[in-house]
């Protein structure tokens, strides 16, 4: 494939991914009007799992994981929170240890506090985006994300994976929260989403961001919406667009109308 054709293919893939996210947001809103649990579950599969692959993976990961997800070939889940670590992602204890001899990562839950909790779609999902401490030569390289197979196409758990149903909550009963436990589950080296950190075949870790803390912050930043800033007083920080009075006057009436119609549709 020539360079112009390759560039065009990459651009088309990026545009298709962008359109997919936009369509998913629109469909999720419509589904939530009828059944919030269905909208939430779709959000977990496409926005959290799919968004993690898109934002933390390479173009090869997008081709391998996101495109089949778009075609509904499988479903995914998002596994960050642990029994002993909620918002403290930096302190998670699940481990992804690199085994140089077979070019694999060993995903393991070393203790009870490392069990992944409140994993939505845990009782039906095929793959999980699992955040774990990347261990190379006995040293942690900080939290990284791997794609871990959980169930085959028939819904059977893979060896080493345990899924525990957390049962019903007061609301959103259609969302199956569960606990995921991994006992020396092996995955290929390529299953590491490597936009911010990769592991070469010789076991060397590589990252475009050398500082571990900065790398961690960059990784999380891609998973959270950002506020665009534009213009502002000279020699001072740019102001968020939404804080400009002209933008507020233009946007707020339409936003208020949209929210009012949304609330009305959910009540009636």
Brief summary:
This protein has 268 residues and is of the alpha+beta class.
Any chance you could write out the topology, listing elements then pairs?
Blueprint: H1 3-34, H2 36-56, H3 59-70, E1 76-79, E2 95-99, E3 104-108, E4 116-120, E5 127-136, E6 139-149, E7 161-165, E8 177-182, E9 185-188, E10 198-199, E11 205-206, H4 212-221, H5 245-267
Helix pairs in contact: 1-2, 2-3
- The helix/strand order is HHHEEEEEEEEEEEHH
Which class do the helix and strand fractions yield?
Answer: alpha+beta
- What overall geometry do the principal axes of the alpha carbons give? globular
Count of extended strands:
11
Low-confidence stretches: none
Work out the helix count: 5
% residues in beta strands: 15-25%
Structural overview:
The protein is an alpha+beta fold. It is 37% helix and 22% strand. Strands 1, 2, 3, 5, 6 and 9 form a six-stranded mixed sheet that branches. The longest helix has 32 residues, at 3-34. The radius of gyration is 21 Å and the shape is globular. The N and C termini lie far apart (55 Å).
């Amino acid at each position: 494939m020539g360079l112009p054709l390759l560039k065009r293919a990459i651009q088309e893939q990026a545009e298709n991914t962008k359109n997919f996210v936009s369509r998913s947001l629109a469909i999720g809103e419509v589904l939530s009007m009828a059944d919030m649990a269905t909208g939430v579950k779709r959000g977990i599969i496409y926005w959290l799992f799919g968004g993690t692959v898109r934002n933390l993976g390479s173009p090869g990961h997008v081709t391998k994981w996101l495109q089949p997800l778009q075609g509904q070939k499988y479903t995914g889940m998002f596994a960050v929170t642990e029994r002993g670590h909620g918002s403290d992602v930096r302190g998670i204890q699940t481990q992804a240890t690199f085994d140089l001899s077979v070019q694999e990562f060993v995903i393991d839950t070393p203790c009870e506090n490392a069990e992944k909790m409140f994993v939505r779609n845990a009782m039906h999902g095929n793959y999980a985006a699992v955040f774990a401490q990347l261990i190379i030569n006995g040293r942690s390289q900080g939290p990284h994300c791997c794609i871990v197979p959980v169930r085959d196409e028939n819904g059977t758990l893979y060896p080493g994976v345990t899924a525990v149903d957390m049962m019903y909550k007061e609301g959103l009963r259609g969302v199956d929260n569960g606990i995921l436990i991994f006992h020396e589950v092996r995955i290929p080296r390529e299953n590491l989403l490597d936009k911010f950190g990769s592991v070469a075949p010789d076991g060397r870790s590589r990252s475009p961001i050398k500082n571990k803390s900065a790398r961690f912050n960059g990784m999380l930043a891609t998973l959270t919406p950002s506020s665009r800033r534009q213009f502002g007083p000279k020699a001072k920080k740019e102001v968020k667009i939404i804080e400009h009075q002209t933008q507020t006057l233009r946007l707020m009436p339409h936003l208020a109308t949209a929210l009012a119609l949304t609330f009305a549709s959910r009540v009636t």
